[in-house]
Specification:
Layout lengths: L5 E7 L6 H15 L3 E8 L5 H11 L4 E6 L4 H11 L4 E4 L8 H11 L5 E12 L2 H18 L11 E4 H8 L8 H11 L4 E9 L8 H24 L1
Parallel strand pairs: 1-2, 1-4, 2-3, 5-7
Antiparallel strand pairs: 4-6, 5-6
Helix pairs in contact: 5-8
Bound molecules: guanosine-5'-triphosphate (GTP) and magnesium ion (MG).
Length: 237
């Protein structure tokens, strides 16, 4: 049986130090799976040599590596643009630091996308080595999303997620340009009566985040409250 193709989306911001090595690791792994695939590196705003390195990778592997460069900032915007441009129906979003075990996650995610619109890799139900403050802030956010939006998820980060392209396309224009897009997509998919599922992933991430933790926390909580208010008012109207 012919395996379905996968578009792997890698959002990047100032990843010059690791991009070349990690893209080559992914290329070598995906090459061995014998699936049709592409890697879409999606950059907005890097100030180091990320774009130059990504251009070189795309030139070396023209059928496998594509580059999206955007002037407008925001990881959600980077995802949305890459998802629209993707060649394949199964989209998998992976962080450039490859801190999640992609060799387990990618095949399992691809399998579950046969029957689900979204697959969420969760560090919380899996195992994680991340700084305590990051775990604590995530836990607070997760508790609120359950309470306010009824989302049965324990991880809303951008990495290790899978999406069925045709199911999320109708919602892409309305999603946030920051990382809150994951929560919005899951909410829309669940309201549309489609299926999403969470699976455990193993994550070892001790490097400094590319996000400013304080700014990201304030942004996430603010986005959640305003999204909840909009949804509640719309429902009441
Ligand atoms: N395109 C784009 N990518 C970004 C941006 N900010 C971060 N990224 C990328 O998003 C991915 C995740 O960033 P990390 O710094 O690893 O995030 P993290 O804090 O470890 O994430 P958690 O899993 O939530 O703990 C990486 O591939 C980053 O390069 C951005 O503004 N634009
Ligand atoms: Mg990371």
């Amino acid at each position: 049986m012919k395996l379905a193709g996968i578009s792997i989306i890698i959002p990047v911001y100032n990843e010059a130090a690791i991009l070349g090595v990690n893209v080559r690791r992914l290329l070598s792994y995906m090459g061995r799976t014998r699936r049709p695939f592409e890697l879409i590196i999606s950059d907005n705003g890097s100030t180091d040599r990320t774009v130059e390195i990504a251009r070189r990778l795309a030139a070396e592997h023209p059928k496998r590596v594509r580059l999206v460069t955007l002037a407008k900032r925001g990881v959600g915007y980077a995802f949305k643009t890459a998802a629209k441009a993707a060649r394949y129906e199964k989209l998998i979003s992976i962080d450039a630091d490859l801190t999640v075990d992609y060799r387990s996650f990618i095949p399992e995610c691809a399998r579950l996308l046969e029957t689900n619109s979204i697959v969420v890799g969760s560090k919380t139900v899996g195992s994680q080595r991340r700084p305590f403050t990051r775990k604590l802030l995530s836990a607070g956010f997760i508790a609120l999303t359950r309470l306010m939006l009824g989302i049965r998820l324990t991880d809303h980060s951008i990495g290790a997620k899978g999406y069925r392209r045709k199911d999320i396309l109708p919602f892409l224009s309305g999603i946030d340009s920051g990382s809150f897009y994951v929560t919005m997509l899951v909410y829309r998919i669940s309201k549309a009566g489609k299926r999403y599922v969470e699976i455990p992933v193993v994550c070892d991430d001790r490097r400094k985040s590319k996000f400013s933790i304080s700014r990201e926390t304030a942004y996430r909580f603010k986005s959640l409250v305003s999204f909840w208010l909009r949804e509640t008012l719309e429902y009441a109207a």
